[in-house]
Amino acid sequence: MNVHLSLLHAYPFERLRQLFSDVTPNANFSPISLGIGEPRHPTPDLIKKAYCQAIEDGAGLAAYPATTGDLAMRQAIAQWMHKRYGLTVRASDQILPVNGSREALFAFAQTIVQAEQGKAKPLVVCPNPFYQIYEGAALLAGAEPYYVASVPERNFAQDWASVPAEVWARTQLLFVCSPGNPAGAVMPLQEWKTLFELSDRYGFVIASDECYSEIYFRDTPPLGGLEAAAQLGRSDFKNLVSFTSLSKRSNVPGMRSGFCAGDAALMAQFLRYRTYHGSAMSPVVQSASIAAWQDEIHVQENRALYREKFHTVTPVLGKVLDVRLPDAGFYLWAKVLGSDEDFARALYAAYNVTVLPGSYLARSAQGHNPGAGFVRMALVAQTAECLEAAHRIAAFVRDAA
After folding, report:
1. Between 101-112 and 264-277, two packed helices, what is the crossing angle to 10 degrees?
2. Average model confidence (pLDDT) across the chain
3. Looking at the structure, do residues 75 and 10 belong to the same domain, yes or no?
4. Per-residue pLDDT, 401
5. 69-82 pLDDT, tens digit each
6. Which of 14, 22, 33, 368 is least surrounded by Cβ atoms within 10 Å, i.e. has the fewest?
């Protein structure tokens, strides 16, 4: 067996299952889960119709699909990127369809990281708190994760200035997430400029996870990594690849469809890896994905649902918890009194509401776990159910006061 497998930590939801294993929730309340960030709004009809029509038409099911995806798929993505970000990205060599951003983020690390025998392990730098795939991808590639300190006062934005030069010198890959998971912070242009300068100086690659980019609450859409590069005169996207997905944007997490785009030289090597990895997208999924990328009406409707939900729920929770509206994403990141595990466990027992302890989404680094004392609430259910959960949480906090 690969010895690196033993380094993997239990996934947060497995840890949550273990935390609740001996707890009997209050049967007077129906269960409400805010624990898993799984979109639960209805899948748009236009996507379902395109999917079913592709099956009816055969959609190339009798042939192996190309790893590059159909040209029509890549062109639809390029057109979306031009509409969304004002970018001109080549469908020929700067875009690859992927089976959800999760598998692509993991696979990308295996392409980039090069561990050499007899030398110190390369570093993969990631946020803290973070999406656990970053850590697992680093460990399986033979690298060592380095967790960047975050700044609670800035909505848990990363403190890049705290990273020592000797760390950057060993860094081969940097994961960034904007809008962030779990706190929802969006990286401004100056922050991107800092990272590009560091990348130029030390030679590491930046993987930008942007799967929450279309769920936002301000008037201005979140800045994307490639968009930032273009604004700073880096139209070749040197050492930068962005990853995104239809899962949150279009409520199709089960379809496993997304794309990555960026530096053509990196994309060529990633395509080589993926050809051997067997990660071509189904033609049926591609047909449905084209329909999704070509339509913005359902995205606007989806965003409106989240805006209504957050503006309804946040004031209820804000009366009892330290919580605020994020820049983007569908999570509320709330500070609680005492242990986040104790809070989650007691809330589940008393009111049958599931939240995720923040410490499960972070690692102890620089002397502390930045997620400790916080809980993450995924507002993915319908507004009425989320509001009911908020009222129960408020009652729980008042009971404990």
Report:
1. 110
2. 96
3. no
4. 82
5. 999 999 999 999 99
6. 22
| Total structural domains within the chain | 2
Residues 205 and 274 in one domain: yes
Closest to 205 (Cα-Cα) out of 239, 162, 163: 239
Q: Residue 94: name the closest of 274, 335, 270, 306 by CA.
A: 270
Interval 282-300: pLDDT, tens? 999 999 999 999 999 999 9
Mind giving me the DSSP string for 193-220? Answer: HHHHHHHHHH--EEEEE-TTTT-B-SSS
Do residues 241 and 263 lie in contact, with contact meaning Cβ atoms separated by under 8 Å? yes
Helices (H), 153-296: 165-170, 189-202, 225-231, 246-250, 264-277, 283-293
- The string over 238-271, giving b where at least 16 C-beta atoms fall within 10 Å of a residue's C-beta and e elsewhere, is bbbbbbbbbbbbbbbbebbbbbbbbbbebbeebe
**Same domain flag for 76 and 118:** yes
Q: Alpha helices, DSSP H only, in 86-118?
A: 101-112
Q: 């503006």: which residue's tokens?
A: 311
3-class DSSP assignment, residue 400: helix
Residues 227 and 358 in one domain: no
